[in-house]
Structures are given as structure tokens and as C-alpha cells.
Prior knowledge:
The protein has helices at about 1-15, 20-50, 70-95, 100-115, 120-140. The chain is an all-alpha fold. The protein has one domain. It is globular.
Amino acid sequence: MNQLEAFFEDLFLKKISFKLPAGVKEVIVKIAPWVTLIIIVLSLPAVLTLFGFGSFMGGFAPFVGYGLSSRYYLGIIILIIQLILMIMAFPGLQKREIKGWRYIYYSNLVSGVYGIVSSYNLGALIWALIAMGIGLYIIFQVKSYYK
């Protein structure tokens, strides 16, 4: 993992010449814990659906439904992994600790890999790569703010 992180650090901090202004980085670091918390809260209904609680949340209970694909379940499992990483990141992001930054980095990697693997056509693959690249770019731009 350290080699991959070093590769992205070199790419997003040295090879790409456009840097975010310090003020923008400071704003990102200040709001990151709260954006993470909002994403956690908004993702909970999808996780609850997996356990059959979705029927009274406007969704459906997958254990009762028919014809659900393995892609659906894989997506929910990936979402759960991301949520766990975000929950673990929240206190570290508030304290500007590098472990909080790393959990968000891992969450972005998990999301990106899932997006690439589950792409059903070239357009979806390109958008998955773009989204992962933007996320990693922002994450590495603010890395120095975490100790």
C-alpha cells in the first residue's frame, strides 16, 4: 500500500503542476469531517435495506425480493466497507490526524476499484476513472494538513 500511496503522491503533488490554493485546501480540511458525516447518514438507508429494513423506508427488503443481482449485493458490501472506513476516519479528520486521512484515502480506493470493476461499458469505465482521479487529487492536495 505504501508504494501505491507514494505513486499517487508523486503523481498528484509533483507531476501535476496545478495546485489548489491554500485557502481552498483549508476549507476542504475544515468541512471534510462534516461532509463525511453527511455521507454516512445518507448511506445508512441503503445499508439497512440489506438487512430487510428497507420496506418501511420506501425501498424493498432484498431477502424477500426476487431477481436481485450479485452486482447489487456486491455494491452493498462495498458500501458497508466504505461506511466503516468513513466512520473510522471521522474522529481523525476532526483532529487532523493522518490516520483519518488514510481511512478516507482507502475509502476512495475501494470506491474507485469497485467503479472500475463494475463498469458495464467504456463510458462507465471512463467516468469511474475520472471520479477516482478527482477524488485522489483532492485527497492528496490536502494530505500535508494531516499529521
